[in-house]
Amino acid sequence: MKAGVIAVQGDVAEHAAAVRNAAAAHDESAEVVEIRDSGTVPDCDVLLMPGGESTTISRLIQREGIAAEIRDHVAAGKPILATCAGLIVCSTDAKDDRVEPLGLVDVSVDRNAFGRQKDSFEAKIPVDGLDDPFHAVFIRAPAIDDVGAGVETLAAVDGRPVAVRDGPVVATAFHPELTDDPRIHDLAFFPDREVLA
Question: What is the pLDDT of residue 176?
């Protein structure tokens, strides 16, 4: 499996390790490539859109010609996992004129909905498709405030969706790559197989 991490900004190494762990659990290997320029996305089986600064990520993927390739990837039914700022960039409504959303997940998003850096927190949350709660790390986390009809809510905190699936896209407000638990990456990339315990 060739996994591409959109590496213009964000938790690149952590996502690379997580997708390798998820693949290994299914006796597969994952070749991870860092994507900073156009031309690599079409060769990838799966993509990861890390957290970071959504305005910066949006600007750079548009400038480098990566945005159109990401849309084509999803249109072909290939999976992508978008986390934190990645959720904002992949949304249909980022509620911020500085972000040009990709329109891949039919949601509107409130940036920093759970507060600033000092308000970051961790919580064990139930996630649809997982037998046990997932230890989620929220850092300047966004929240989803409106979900389109075709979007499946996978997890919520205080009644606000924080993980969703829209076709081949799984998007989270939290950072699953900052834990040793690869189950969110497993949900995103191996949805038809038994989920890891």
Answer: 93
d(CA 118, CA 137): 13
Catalytic choice (44, 69, 73, 177): 177
Q: Does 195 reside within a domain?
A: no
Q: Name the catalytic one among 73, 84, 90, 185.
A: 84
Reply yes or no on whether 44 is catalytic. no
Q: Name every residue whose Cβ is closer than 8 Å to that of residue 52 and which is 6 or more positions away in sequence.
A: 8, 9, 10, 11, 84, 85, 86
> What is the CATH classification number for the domain harbouring 105?
3.40.50.880
The 10s digit of each residue's pLDDT in 149-194 is 999 999 999 889 999 999 999 999 999 999 989 899 999 998 876 6
Instruction: Evaluate whether 38 touches 65 at the Cβ level (below 8 Å).
Output: yes
Query: Which is more confident, 139 or 11?
Result: 139
Would residue 196 count as lying in a domain? Answer: no
Structural domain tally of the chain?
Answer: 1
Instruction: Please give the residue range of the domain that contains residue 46.
Output: 2-190
To the query of whether residue 90 is one of the catalytic residues in this protein, the response is no
Question: In the annotation, is 73 catalytic?
Answer: no
